[in-house]
Amino acid sequence: MKGKHILIIEDERDIADLLQFNLEQKQYSVSIARNGENGIEIAKNKKPDLVLLDLMLPGIHGLDVCRILKTKKGLEKISIIMLTALGQEENIVKGLEAGADDYISKPFSFKILLARIKSVLRRGEHPKTESEKLIIINNLKIIPRKREVSIEEKKLELTYTEFQILYLLASHPGWVFTRYQIIEKIRGNNSSVTDRSVDFQIVGLRKKIGESGRLIETIRGVGYRFKLEYL
Question: Whose CA, among 31, 108, 147, 222, lies 20 to 30 Å from 88?
Answer without folding.
Answer: 31
